Amino acid sequence: MKKIGLEIHCQLTKLESKLFCKCKADYRSLPTNSNTCPICIGLPGSLPLLNRKAVEKAAMISLALECKIPERISFFRKNYFYPDLPKNFQITQYNAYGPTSIGYEGKIGIEDKEIRIRRIQLEEDPGRLIYEGSSEKTLITLIDYNRAGAPLVEIVTEPDFESPRQVRIFLNVLADLVENIGVADPYLEGALRVDGNISTGSGNRVEIKNVGSFRDIEKALHFEITRQQSLLDRGIPIQAETRHWDEARKITISSRAKEEEEDYRYLPEADIPVVMIDKNIIVEIQKQMPESIIAKRDRYIKKYGMPVQVANVLASDKFYSDLFEKAHSEINAKEVANIITTDLMGFADTREKKLELKISATHISDLANAIINNGITRNSGKIALQEMIKTGKTLSDVTLGLDLGHVSDTNYLEQIINEVFKEEEKAVIEARQNADTVNYLVGKVMQKTKGKADPTITIEIIRKKLSN
């Protein structure tokens, strides 16, 4: 029996400042060790001041994951020595005297399974270690404290996952969720980091750290399951330890003995008083939260008649759902959704490619309207879309430049269809016997017209000729 739980560290990247000081939360483009102050590097006598916006954003995550939010939250010092931790302790939350973290006892559904959320805690991020050198003999470790104190939410699940595949699905759902409610950009480097906890059979729990992507956490868990099962089969006990994922060799490596909670010597943070959370504040936060992914999906299905799969894909991607909201009308909504989910997502399936897109909502709207009004065929529309993505040109300019006009002239189409009937005699005989095979003939007409033939008129002419 396998038990898998996760600890997800999600930076609140939409905030302007760090958790306890006025230094910038967005440290990624700044010179090394330039984004620091006495508070975030832990100089004696410096006093932390809690970022109210960070509490609100963390509460949004708690609400989105159906967590309970206590009436009072408090902070603790988690004591451990590590080079990237300037104070030698981390200010975090800990449910020592009942629930006092920002959220607890939540849940999130994936496919047909419910994953329980044990707690959500608000804490500061440590600094960042940078390794340089080509071998172990020349390896040096550098420290950049720009990240130290960045606002972070840790989401701790119960060990409810039964397979690495479920873990990856969950992480994709969670990434979509935090992006949708506007608290974080999960695709920024280091913005969403995952530690996996796994035990097999009666063995001890092993923690896997240093995993760089959702794909790698799935691979790391697969490897660890195989490793632990092999030890159990040979009667070798599984040690409680922390292991790191070696991306190059695709294996986990023992790092240190697993710390227990008492090793951290949690102490109440005396410099930050208990924070009372009024129910009216929670109501206000709920009002500020955007439409949930599930509600958005249901609206797309009910209002626009979208297929469930299309609505699911569109609603879960904030970038494309925002584009849809700007581009669609009551008339062209389904066509806009089809263009985005069928074609555009194929051209731009990564964050980098999305940022490189040169098209706007107007491009998508114009293309959808042209297809609906038979101004351009769907096949020609794909070609036009690809050109608009590259150049940013308007649909009319692209259509003229690439000769993508819509062929609806009956006489011309009859000539093309006559040619196809002569070349495809066997297909014509088969189509007369089985009407379902007529699409093969339509495809041949499309080939000859480079996708510009009006499909409705083409089918009408072909069926008329087949009946003669």
Question: What attributes does this structure have?
Answer:
alpha+beta, three-stranded antiparallel β-sheet, 468 residues, Arc Repressor Mutant, subunit A, 3 domains, elongated
Could you characterize what this model shows?
By secondary structure, this protein is an alpha+beta fold. The chain folds into 3 domains: 282 residues, no CATH class; 112 residues, no CATH class; 58 residues, Arc Repressor Mutant, subunit A (Orthogonal Bundle), CATH 1.10.10. The chain has 16 helices and 15 strands. The chain has an 8-stranded mixed beta sheet with strand order 5-6-9-1-10-11-12-13. Strands 4-3-14 form a 3-stranded antiparallel beta sheet, with no helix packed on it. It has a two-stranded antiparallel ribbon with strand order 2-15. Strand 12 and strand 13 form a beta hairpin. The longest helix has 20 residues. It is elongated and about 90 Å long. The mean pLDDT is 89.
What percentage of residues falls in helices of 4 or more residues?
40-55%
SS summary, helix count: 16
Characterize the overall form.
Answer: elongated
* Beta-strand content bin: 15-25%
Residue windows where pLDDT falls under 50 for at least 5 positions: none
Strand order of the largest sheet: 5-6-9-1-10-11-12-13
Please summarize the sheet with the most strands. 8 strands, mixed
**Radius of gyration, CA atoms, in whole angstroms:** 29 Å
Tally the beta strands.
Answer: 15
The total domain count is 3
